[in-house]
Amino acid sequence: MHAGPRPRTALLLMDLQQSILQNYPDGGLLERIRTALAAARRAALPVVWVRVCFRPGYPEVSPHNVRFSEVRQTGRLLESDPGSDIHPSLDVQPQDVVVTKRRIGAFAGSDLEVVLRAAGIESLVLAGVATSGVVLSTVRLAADMDYRLTVLADGCADGDPEVHRVLTEKVFPRQATVQTVGAWVDSLSG
Question: Where are the transmembrane segments (predicted)?
Fold first, then answer.
């Protein structure tokens, strides 16, 4: 049986923004993200950055949205805030796509699906923070949308290490391949 062409894959890097990353101890996360990013570029895979931010006055934030109502009160994550930018050590390139979302998951309140479909993307490799936030929400919806998924377990971080462990070891494997950055990089050259 002929397996057909290899699915077109994109690396999806989520919420790796300066003001968000300051809430997580690095523990080598940024270095692992840079390793995955370099491997994707060598393999000519599209890179899509997803960031969360809001317009002045937060017109997208309902008072019923507990998480983002807290953000609104702090005045953080505005489009104009330099803290909303992708971390400068991650080197966003002109050919990369940067998607702005207005909710937790990468698809909610963004044009991510339009971008992926236009590029013929069928497979997503996900990394970012937080594991229990953007990664979980994106895995769930992307699986329902029939994307092939890989989660880079050590390319994600969460404020609660036990939640990260449960998600990457027990929940995500039901809908995605879960790999380390190193294993994924090795798979690209094989």
Answer: none
Per the structure, the complete domain to which residue 141 belongs is given by 12-172
How many CB atoms are located within 10 Å of the residue 32 CB? Answer: 22
Domain membership flag for residue 152: yes
Burial class from Cβ neighbours inside 10 Å (0-12, 13-18, 19+) for residue 85 reads: middle
Q: How confident is the model at residue 6 (pLDDT cuts 50, 70, 90)?
A: low
What's the domain count of the chain?
Answer: 1
Q: Is this structure's pTM higher than 0.90?
A: yes
Calpha distance 143→121 (Å, rounded): 13
Q: Is 107 helix (H, G, I), strand (E, B) or coil?
A: coil
The CA distance from 186 to 133, in Å, is 27
Asked if residue 177 lies in contact with residue 152, where contact means CB atoms within 8 angstroms, the answer is no
